[in-house]
Amino acid sequence: MTTDELEKLLTKLPVSQLHMLARGRIHRHFRLGKRRLVEALLGHVSVNRGGLESDLQALIQQSPPPSQESRPRQKPGSAPAGVGRAGNKQRAPSEAGHAEPAVPASDLSAFLDGIGVPPPQPLVPDAWQEEALGHLATTDVIVSVPTGSGKTYVAIEAAKRAIEADRTVIYTSPLKALSNTKFTELSKLFGADQVGILTGDRRDNPHAPLLIMTTEILRNLLYDAASGEIDVRLDTLGLVIMDESQYIADPERGVVWEETIIFCPAQARLLLLSASIGNPQEIAAWLTSIRPTPCHLVQHHRRSVPLRAGYLHPNGKLAPLFRSVGIPHGHGALLHPETKRLFAQYEDATLPSR
Amino acid sequence: MPPSIHPFDLVAALRHKHLTPAIVFLTSRRACDDAMQAIQRSQVTLPPQRQHAISLVLKELSTQYPSIAEHPLLQTVERYGVAAHHAGHLPSWKIAIEELMRQGYLDAVFATTTLAAGVDFPARTVVLTQSSVRKTREFTDLTISEVQQLAGRAGRRGKDFVGFAIVTPSPYIDIDVITKGLTGHPEPIDSQFVIAYPMVLNLLKAHPLDHIQGILARSFAQFQLNRRAEALEAKQDAVHKQMEPYGPRVCTDWITQWQIFDLARKQKAQRAHIRRREPPELMARWQFLTPGRVVGLPKGRGVVLRQYRSRGERCPMVTVLRPGGHVTECPAAMITHLYDRTLEVEEAREFPWCTVDSLGHLIEELSELPTRIPNLPILVQEEAEETEITLTLNDEFPCPTCPSRLPCQKDHATALRLRQELQRHTKTIQAHRTGLWHRFQERTEVLQRYGYLTSTCHLTEDGEWARLIRIDPSLLITELIRTEAFSGIEPQILAGIMASIAHDDDRPGSFPRISHGLASLLGQVRKLAQSLAPHEDPPLLRADVAALAERWVGDTSLTWIRLCQTTTMAEGDIYRLLARNLEFLSQLHTLRATHPGLADTASRAIKALRRDVLEELP
Predict the structure, then answer these.
(1) Where are the domains of chain A?
(2) Which terminus of chain A has fewer CB atoms gathered within 10 Å of its CB, N or C?
């Protein structure tokens, strides 16, 4: 909920309910008029936003829509017990359930539906994977897709094609541990003689067509090559795969990625694999501006295994986090009423008394 | 209600809903280890077949990595099917856990978010218990990308139809951050280009100076800066358009004229303001006459209880507690001394201006004060000299007969604001366009001063080898080599020094003994690092990690377990320290052409370092 939305909601509420919200949050709230009350409540947002919002939601769900003029007036008088010192929280659970949301919220069984192991299927490359591989024949490619959607497949396939074309491939990863894992993995795939590794203190098979290294090592190689001390065949280099290239934004090591890309030989293709980032277009535009061929961007946000979000209460109760089964996109996602109720309860019980 | 779900209940709930295997992200290593202990206490073990399967996998792995077989948590993992995975563990152990996860034998892994990027295994479920993460020292909210990176581990391709990201509340959670992270669009990333000394040397080795600017212009940093500059230029154009009606009038520079006039008027007003007040000495003292301050009066001393302005006396006043408990009022001007001493006062809103308790304490403390207390040095600001402008300018406008006076008076504020905006944009644009190049030039100047570059920006003899040291802090290391700090030292001392340079973690550890030779050399290194501080951030240079590396290299009969027992550092941290040390030493080894002695010592240190656990992983 943005502050603007919150303000709108607050101004819609009758003053009595605003006072209810303000109790314990705002010092001497009973002295304030409606406008000042709303202001003060908005000011309180910075202290505990979640609590205010969930209280507000609970209030809205309890009270009838504001179109019926007479009801809100009646409310404070008719239900003094609930408004009393115990606070409105206790009442929220019983009444929140009665509220009719516009979109019916999914229930737990729908949320948990479909857990299981799919039968083994032959690996069929996705369209975006084919797209990336197709473009790699002629241009540099950036792949920015969610974690775990099969970037490695693109890397392996691209490496295979480059090796078939008798070109050298360099695969870089940010961490030595990842390099080592990749080395074992690719050695099994391509054969031990086809894969080499170079890290800070390891040097295996440095003349293999597929070389795995940390990005720092490649940067050093490129510097050495630039000053005339070549140690690896850079003239036959056909493809440079940079895994986890969102590391370019790493405060300490990001510069290494930039240096590597700047000095990457012109004849070699670049394949940048990255998790979802906000501005892959900008990086593609940059590559286009400094590399001989325009850079192609492959981007999507769809996960190959759909993700659902849930809420687990400390008492072991599970509820969906959002109203919809899957994870919605964009602003103003609505929490599942059950989750909202449970979380409000949690905050009520654990936060220091208001 | 408990502040957060008990780890055992968490695992039980996940198992019950078939949400295992799961990765549970916790706030700290400590939390992970505590969770493991809690699981251990529960005594609910896996069925024997699964225990057997796990132990088979671990047995197979331990042939490759012997340290796994000796791991203290081995039994727990086998019996309960739950593990912890964080930077405090040895890499071999982490590999084992990852392998078990990949094969689906574990139900849950407790991990820290700090290493989320290094965690390379998926699960069916990811459990988030926090919305902020510790970066350097402070906790900051998780970014959208980070939340998605964490949640993205859920759902294994080919093994799950659907993945789950489960949020469970804890005192460290703000549910809004998580929901925003799950539903939002990841943040754009920014270049983090920094120009380091080795980069300068390597660039100048391979390219002539006049090509460098072109190379820097190809960086992503410059690309982004150019974009920003272009956006600003567009804004500048808009401002230019707005400026059109405010072109030259009767005098071309009417905006400046009015600016000066305005300034003079303001200064004059301020001057009048000051004159009405008290003498500057008094005003300087006034701020220090806070409750609790010990002051000297013509007769004896006192403690200030409150300060106020008296209407009747028309001057600043203070209420002072005199020895013997007398509370008196006196004008601030009467105070003769201001001592560098304050006493604790609990202020109150009415006579005697402090609580009765603290009044008693004060009287007591006042009588016990030493006879000599240093005075508080107070800087009295001289009354500002009247500038020429204010002297020459009256309240009158300089050219009263000017025909465009009235329109100018009306417009000058807007025009001035626009002009200042324009100037600001121009400056920023310039900084964006040339900032990188200037930073490069700064670096070359430093390198020239230390003799790595000639005045024509060619590499000197020192520069030729110094460019091979491509680790931070490169300047410190090359300077150490140049000053021959390393000549003729033992491998273990070299390893110790490099360890203290390499280690950048301030997690407390303890290791008391450090050899005399290492200590004195470390002192030398600290001094040098301090002198280089304007050009390069000095590393932590911790003595305890130096001693640790010295011990490991110096005594080759020392086993890994014994080494770990000598310090409170976590196993994984020691490993990382030594592995990084290996990298640094192998950089020194690359200097074998120019510094054969040092390279030899380095290679001996490397050989001694690489044994036991450090040999396991390639």
Answers:
(1) 1-85, 101-114+311-354, 127-299
(2) C
Q: What is the mean pLDDT of residues B371-389?
A: 69
Residue range B447-461: mean pLDDT, rounded? 93
- Report yes or no: B582 at the A interface, CB cutoff 8 Å: yes
Question: Does residue B199 belong to the interface with chain A, where contact is any CB pair within 8 Å?
Answer: yes
User: What is the predicted pLDDT for the residue at B108?
Assistant: 92
Which residues lie closer than 8 Å to A280 by C-beta, 6 or more apart?
A: A142, A144, A274, A297, A299
Give me the residues of A, 49-78, that contact B with CB < 8 A.
Answer: 49-50, 53
Q: Which residue of B has its CA nearest to A310?
A: B166
B122 with A148: Cβ contact below 8 A: yes
Contact map slice: B 40-99 vs A, CB within 8 A: 91, 94-95
DSSP per-residue string spanning A168-226:
EEEEEESSHHHHHHHHHHHHHHH-GGGEEEEETTEEE-TTSSEEEEEHHHHHHHHHHHH
* Amino acid, res. B421: E
What is the torsion angle, in degrees rounded to the nearest 10, for the CA atoms of residue B448, residue B452, residue B454 and residue B458? -120
Chain A residues within an 8 Å CB radius of B463: none
pLDDT band at A232 (very low <50, low <70, confident <90, very high): low
Say if CB B321 and CB B359 are below 8 A apart. yes
Match domain B7-183 to its CATH number in 3.30.2350.10, 1.20.1730.10, 3.40.50.300, 3.20.20.30: 3.40.50.300
Helix extents (H) in chain A = 3-12, 15-22, 34-44, 49-62, 70-78, 80-83, 92-96, 108-112, 127-136, 151-164, 176-190, 215-226, 254-263, 280-290, 337-350
Cα-only R_g, chain A: 29
What pLDDT is recorded for position A73?
42
Query: Is A325 within 8 Å of A77 (Cβ atoms)?
Result: no
Tell me which CATH code domain B470-616 carries: 1.10.3380.30
B153 touches chain A (CB under 8 A): yes
Q: Is B215 on the interface with A (CB under 8 A)?
A: yes
Angstrom CA distances, B517 to B511, B547, B605, stand at: 16, 11, 16
Cβ neighbours around A5 below 10 Å, total = 12
Instruction: Quote the CA–CA distance of A254 and A274 in Å, as a whole number.
Output: 13
CA torsion sign, B141 to B147 to B149 to B151?
positive
**Mean pLDDT estimate for chain B:** 86
Break chain B into its structural domains and give their ranges.
7-183, 192-249+416-467, 289-367, 470-616
H helical segments located in A63-174: 70-78, 80-83, 92-96, 108-112, 127-136, 151-164
Q: For residue A304, what is the nearest residue in chain B, using CA coordinates?
A: B157
Nearest CA in chain A to B150: A147
Average pLDDT (B342-366) is: 84
Note the pLDDT tens digit of each residue in A7-33: 888 888 888 888 888 877 777 777 788
Per-residue confidence band for A66, with pLDDT thresholds at 50, 70 and 90: very low
CA B345 to chain CA centroid, Å, is: 36
Domain B289-367, CATH 2.30.30 — does that match?
yes
Q: Which CATH class is domain A127-299?
A: alpha beta
Measured from the Cβ of residue B561, the count of other Cβ atoms closer than 10 Å reads 13
Other CB atoms within 10 Å distance of the CB of residue B311: 6
Name residues whose C-beta falls within 8 Å of residue A281's C-beta, 6 or more positions apart in sequence: A297
Q: Compare all CA atoms of chain B with the CA of A253 and give the residue at the minimum distance.
A: B192
